[in-house]
Amino acid sequence: MADREELSKIAYEMQVYREEVQLIQQQMGNLQLNYVSTESAVRTLENIGKLNKQEDVLLPIGAGAYIKAKIQDNEVALIDVGVGVIVEKPIPDAVQLLKSKMKEMDSLREKLQKNLEDISKKMKGLEESANKLVEKLKGAGVQPTKQDKEVHTEYG
Q: Residue 77 forms beta bridges with which residues?
């Protein structure tokens, strides 16, 4: 009976870990989108800084869409520094700020990847424990219940 309770506990832990993995994967996806957007902003700012005033440009506005624009000021950019606060910064400073944000995103991505690896190791250990418990039940001549078979099939 204790073995079946242990299998139930393992099934519950595995479900919690699966949900955690899904959350981390979602965070990594959002982080990647933000990173790509920031990288695009850096490229755009670097290119605008090289243009002459009153030069015509196609300005990317996201999702593969552009608008035609004339460069009026190629020396400063308006940057959101958080909580909806927008400040004017010289383009080199704005680029540096965005590159700094990209480094922070890289660091966060590494932490999330490490968390995924840690969870994967824990799940593998739980799978091995579930397999041993199911084999122990079989070895003791106990017919596995439908729930036992599901845990073993899912994690074994």
A: 89
CB 27 within 8 A of CB 115: no
**CA pair distance 8, 1, nearest whole angstrom:** 11
* Token pair 């729930």 in the structure block, residue: 147
CA atoms of 114 and 127, how far apart (whole Å) = 20
User: Is residue 92 within 8 Å of residue 49, measured between CB atoms?
Assistant: yes
For 18-50, give one letter per residue: b (16+ CB within 10 A) or e: eeeeeebeeebeeeeeebeebeebbeebeebbe
Q: What predicted TM-score, i.e. pTM, was given to this entire model?
A: 0.75
Q: Write out the two tokens for 73.
A: 């000021």
- pLDDT tens per residue, range 77-125: 999 988 989 999 999 999 999 999 999 999 999 999 999 999 999 999 9
User: Measured between alpha carbons, how far is 113 from 120 in angstroms, rounded to an integer?
Assistant: 11
CA distances from 72 to 47, 48, 50 (A): 14, 10, 13
